[in-house]
Write a structure and sequence with these properties.
This protein has helices at 7-10, 21-28, 47-56, 69-79, 92-103, 119-126, 143-148, 172-180, 238-247, 255-266, 268-292, 312-321, 345-359; strands spanning 34-35, 86-89, 109-114, 130-135, 154-160, 187-191, 214-219, 232-235, 295-297, 303-307, 324-325, 327-328, 337-341. With 360 residues, the chain is α/β, with parallel strands linked by helices. It folds into two domains: 18-44 and 269-359, Aspartate Aminotransferase, domain 1 (Alpha-Beta Complex); 47-266, Type I PLP-dependent aspartate aminotransferase-like (Major domain) (Aspartate Aminotransferase, domain 2), CATH 3.40.640. The longest helix has 25 residues, at 268-292. The mean pLDDT is 96. Bound molecules: pyridoxal-5'-phosphate. Pyridoxal-5'-phosphate (PLP) binds at residues 39, 91-93, 117, 160, 164, 191, 193, 219, 221-222, 227, 232.
């Protein structure tokens, strides 16, 4: 019998993640390359998290705590919200998926500014949603246009703040004005995967709007250096959390992830060290690029866009050949921009030298 795959599933283009270093090196026959392509923490994982993970290894024969109690308690203290406002995910990616599964019927509408994080599109499409894409304006989310696109069928709006891949933020004032225009049948998702890196104090924060159907997404993948552990969470009203908990797989957060994340929250040294590195190195990168006359867009995150003024795919390939892995923005609609993540100082120097060489 022939398989019947729903049309809305066939319409999904698979997410293309940055390839692991080992695979790229094998493909290109190179070694000793550096990866500045996935916005990961260049300092490694939080050392306190690593220790905590090691400690629970001997209990791997047991299922994890299905409610993630200890981690949720720690988070609720850390964030000053109630226990019932938090839902854990296997990465914040999974919270995105739970939201689309729980709130979308085929034909319902989801609003997504573009370019932004590709998982919104993939999850919304797998629920059969009709997607409304709102182009960015000067690399920033156009909240007026987003508000205008809302209809009776709108269920979810995905706002990435700071936005990946542009690094821009939504100001408090513009979000205040926006949320006034959002009707009660709509959930606004604020994806704050990079919120810890902002320097602009005027940036809106989803948690301040928890009573207006705003769901905030956070992750341990970036500032805490735990991308491989797969742990993130959502902060939301008790009502929405109750809905998500109906469909959340009970063991979605592994025992390793729960222990590592809880310990990482206490690792103030690592947190501060990461922030300092990213801020210092961003300033270094801006200065170096200014000196050699290459255009870029300042960011509130740990990555930024560079205008290479020629095919970004070619620049990507040529940099790869000399061992520096970045991301071409062609598939995001910016054929002449690359995105680079902040690395260690030596890595950033190597990046600047490679870029100068490739562009000359
Ligand atoms: C990296 C990233 C995430 C994190 O996803 P996890 O599943 O928690 O690793 C979420 N949103 C955006 C925009 C990101 O760039």
């Amino acid at each position: 019998m022939k398989l019947k795959v729903p049309e809305h599933i066939l319409s999904i283009k698979p997410y293309v993640p940055g390839k692991p270093i080992e695979e790229l090196e094998r493909e290109y026959g190179i070694s000793g390359s550096i990866k500045l392509a996935s916005n990961e923490n260049p300092l490694g994982p939080s050392p306190m998290a690593v220790k905590a993970v090691e400690k629970v290894l001997s209990g791997l024969n047991r299922y994890p705590d299905g409610s993630g109690r200890e981690l949720v308690i720690r988070l609720s203290k850390h964030l000053k919200v109630s226990y019932n406002n938090i839902v854990l995910g296997n990465g914040s990616d999974e919270i995105i998926e739970m939201l689309t599964t729980a709130f979308i019927l085929p034909g319902d509408e989801v609003i997504i500014p573009v370019p932004s994080f590709l998982m919104y599109e993939i999850s919304a499409k797998s629920s059969g949603a009709k997607l409304l894409f709102i182009p960015l304006k000067s690399l920033s989310i156009d909240l007026d246009a987003v508000a205008e696109a809302i209809t009776d069928k709108t269920r979810l709006i995905f706002l990435c703040n700071p936005n990946n891949p542009t690094g821009t933020v939504i100001s408090k004032k513009s979000f205040d004005e926006f949320i006034e225009k959002v009707p009660e049948h709509v959930i606004v998702v604020m994806d704050e995967a990079y919120i810890e890196f902002i320097r602009d104090k005027d940036c809106a924060r989803g948690m301040d709007y928890i009573d207006s159907n705003v769901v905030t997404l956070r992750t341990f993948s970036k500032i805490y250096g735990l991308a491989g552990l797969r742990i993130g969470y959502g902060i939301m009203s008790e009502y929405i959390a109750g809905i998500l908990n109906r469909i959340r797989p009970p063991f979605n957060a592994s025992s390793l992830a729960q222990a590592g994340a809880a310990a990482a929250l206490d690792d103030k040294d690592f947190f501060n060290k990461t922030i300092r590195l990213v801020h210092d190195e961003l300033d270094f990168m801006y200065e170096s690029l200014d000196k050699i006359g290459i255009g870029f867009f300042p960011t509130q995150s740990n990555f930024f866009l560079i205008d290479v003024k020629k095919s970004a795919d070619d620049v990507f390939e040529n940099m790869l050949k000399i061992g520096v892995i970045v991301r071409s923005m062609i598939s995001y609609g910016y054929p002449e921009y690359i995105r680079v993540s902040i690395g260690l100082h030596e890595e950033n120097i190597r990046f600047i030298n490679a870029l100068e060489k490739v562009l000359s």
